[in-house]
């Protein structure tokens, strides 16, 4: 018997951009822009300044961008820093039915990996 997670994983692995409903692509693009904007805005907080100041020492590397700066970090470091900064002002989105703030960590991780791999925006979505 195939588990639900296996079924979803197989669908995702086999999905092509063309298979995605237009509305899903549009909403995904908005979520990406929202998280990037929140991360850049979060950099101006005391939390953001301390995190940005320590990012290079904690996460050395140049694989992925730290948004809103010319700095780079390892992909895991960029995912952590950008994701944390996007929640600094507590304006990140919430899925009310599950009370989950999924965009910040998932978008930050996906963009860090896309940056490391040189993926296109279409590939990212």
Shape by Cα distribution: globular
Number of strands: 2
Outline the low-pLDDT stretches. Answer: none
- The average pLDDT score comes to 89
**Assembly level:** single chain
Radius of gyration (CA) equals: 16 Å
Proportion in β-strands: under 5%
Q: Residue share in helices?
A: 55-70%
Q: Return the structural class.
A: mainly alpha
Give the termini distance in whole angstroms: 30 Å
Q: Give the neighbour order of strands across the main sheet.
A: 1-2
Number of helices: 6
Explain briefly what this protein structure is:
This protein is mainly α and about 120 residues long.
Structure description:
The chain has 125 residues and is mostly helical. It has helices spanning 4-14, 22-42, 46-58, 75-85, 103-117, 121-124, and strands spanning 64-65, 72-73. The protein has a two-stranded antiparallel sheet with strand order 1-2. It is globular and about 50 Å long.
List keywords for this structure.
mainly alpha; 125 residues; 3% strand; two-stranded antiparallel sheet
List the helices and strands and how they pair.
Layout: H1 4-14, H2 22-42, H3 46-58, E1 64-65, E2 72-73, H4 75-85, H5 103-117, H6 121-124
Antiparallel strand pairs: 1-2
